[in-house]
Amino acid sequence: MDSKSQIVKVKKNQDGDITDVMLDNGNVYSINEAITMTREGIIQGVNVGKARNGREYLRSNPNDREGDNLDNIPTF
């Protein structure tokens, strides 16, 4: 992969937690795969955070736009 991908859609469970992501190339990955890919520099625009309970999650890189926050982008 030469260019970095971006998350364009997310899939959530009943609790509102993101379970899967769709990249701009149409490929779908589990959240755990997406976390690994973010660490490897494949996915841009997000970073890996860690919740108090130790669970890792993806979050949008800080900027002034609310619309690109992962909770606000379209679902599939």
Could you describe the 3D structure shown?
This protein is mostly beta strands. The protein contains one helix and five strands, in the order βββαββ. It has one helix spanning 31-39, and strands at residues 7-12, 18-23, 28-30, 46-50, 56-60. The termini are far apart. The model has no long low-confidence stretch (mean pLDDT 92).
Q: What's this model, at a glance?
A:
With 76 residues, this protein is mainly beta. 12% of the residues lie in helices and 33% in strands.
What value does the average pLDDT take? Answer: 92
Provide the succession of SSEs: EEEHEE
Strand order across the largest sheet: 1-2-3
Percentage of residues assigned to helices: 10-25%
Radius of gyration: 12 Å
Q: What would you call the structural class?
A: mainly beta
Oligomer: single chain
- Strand proportion: 25-35%
Total of helices: 1
Residue runs with pLDDT of under 50 for 5 or more positions: none
Q: Major sheet: size, sense and barrel closure?
A: 3 strands, antiparallel
Q: Span between N and C termini?
A: 24 Å
Tally of extended strands?
5
Approximate shape: globular
